[in-house]
Specification:
Two copies of one chain form a homodimer.
Chain A: H1 25-45, H2 52-59, H3 63-69, H4 73-96, H5 102-122, H6 124-130, H7 137-161, H8 167-188, H9 193-212
Helix pairs in contact in A: 1-2, 1-6, 4-5, 7-8, 8-9
Chain A binds a DNA duplex through residues 1-6, 8-9, 20, 22-24, 26-27, 30, 51-53, 61-68, 71-73.
Chain lengths: 214, 214
DNA sequence: TGCAAATGTGAGGATTACTCATGTTTGTAA
DNA sequence: TTACAAACATGAGTAATCCTCACATTTGCA
């Protein structure tokens, strides 16, 4: 009924480095246990609801030890995220390494998407961390409903334009096109204006190609 | 140096309704002031860093009055978000209302994207609320860097396949295609499995069409 | 005018991130 | 082996914040 917890009231945005790097075998193992505990708790409850005391308890260490290696709560989440990106980048690089022609790209990319999809499905931690408006399920649902409503307007147009097309396919396309637009926007406003404009223009081209395709 | 604040440790995900709807003129005006104050503070510091005491102070009401109309912190953010989606949906519906043919769609959609883009640029509150991994700037930057790295692998392949193409355009395309993929994944895992699979398949088709275009 | 319902208040309860003084273990050099 | 500094471990305590609640005031209306 209350709610404190969280992440950081300072507007810093920096990730403090581990207060101390574990140099002995013993502490390295303990840090692993802390990360594993955090991973489980994030999967169960989300990173926001994860409590530091619980992480410590589950890892079998004291709260003080936790803070010996992680300067704050965000640092734990960050460490898990960084580990994940490192792994996934290696996987992607490998998949695209030997692509030589268009057909090769088609195959490699298709496999890559499948792998990535399975990875997303299997990693609750990443689901939590990367999910937009992550901390708040209600907001996420509002966002999804909003997207569906907006895609709905597009779908109505498409149905008028192509009454014989498969309605489900139309819906999927419109929904995806719209979602991608929101992704492009979010991205565009977080890079510099010039790149943002380019991205939006590229999105327009891409979206229209798909919307008007056959 | 500390950090409490936040949003909600309960795994509920429900948005409690206003504890009480403002029925008198006086209270309706005060609720408006509360929302306006919250809007400013979110724009300045982000929704996570926004403190309820500060909202109350800025609105010129007591903390108790705030909780009279908003059951918790998230409810304020939610109210602002809902207001925004209502407005933007009306705007989108209007833009697409009279589309009659493909050329009309092309024009209306193009204008719509521009409007939406400007809206995103102008609304810091929505930027904060909709931005993925919103609460944590460091995570958002890690995510962006990860995306750039992954797009980099794609770019390398595209350069090999089409050495004469404009490098900047290639980069933009690859970056966008990759970002859209991540958006599709995030979306796919938050809907049911069947729809998720459809979305991923549609994304593959779309991405390949764009990557292999020309 | 009287009264119930709506509204307003802010000190204080409860929870939680994080600190720090203190104790323990480890590696290492004499 | 022993001494000792550095690394590691601990958990009660501090500070910050969300939210409650008992009580005061204002409003609409019969």
């Amino acid at each position: 009924m209350e709610g404190r917890s969280a992440v950081s009231p300072q507007p810093d945005g920096q990730v403090a480095s581990p207060r101390r790097a574990p140099s002995q075998q013993r502490s390295r193992e303990r840090v692993e246990r802390m990360l594993a505990a955090a991973s489980v708790l994030i999967a169960e409850q989300g990173s926001d609801a994860m409590r530091m005391g619980e992480v410590a308890e589950r890892a079998g260490v004291s709260i003080g030890s936790l803070y010996q290696f992680f300067p704050d709560k965000r640092a734990i989440v960050w460490a898990l995220a960084e580990r994940h990106t490192t792994e996934s980048q290696a996987c992607i690089a490998a998949a695209l390494k030997d692509v030589g022609d268009a057909e090769g790209l088609r195959q490699a990319f298709s496999e890559l998407v499948d792998i990535y999809y399975r990875l997303f499905l299997a990693e609750p931690v990443m689901r939590d961390i990367w999910s937009g408006t992550q901390a708040d399920k209600a907001l996420r649902e509002l966002e999804l409903a909003d997207s569906r409503a907006n895609a709905g307007f597009l779908i109505a147009v498409l149905r008028r334009l192509r009454p014989d097309a498969d309605p489900v396919a139309l819906e999927t396309t419109a929904f995806l096109v719209w979602q991608m637009g929101e992704a492009a926007m979010r991205l565009a406003i977080s890079v510099d204006r010039e790149e943002g404009d380019r991205l939006v223009a590229a999105y327009k081209r891409m979206a229209l190609r798909e919307l008007l395709a056959e």
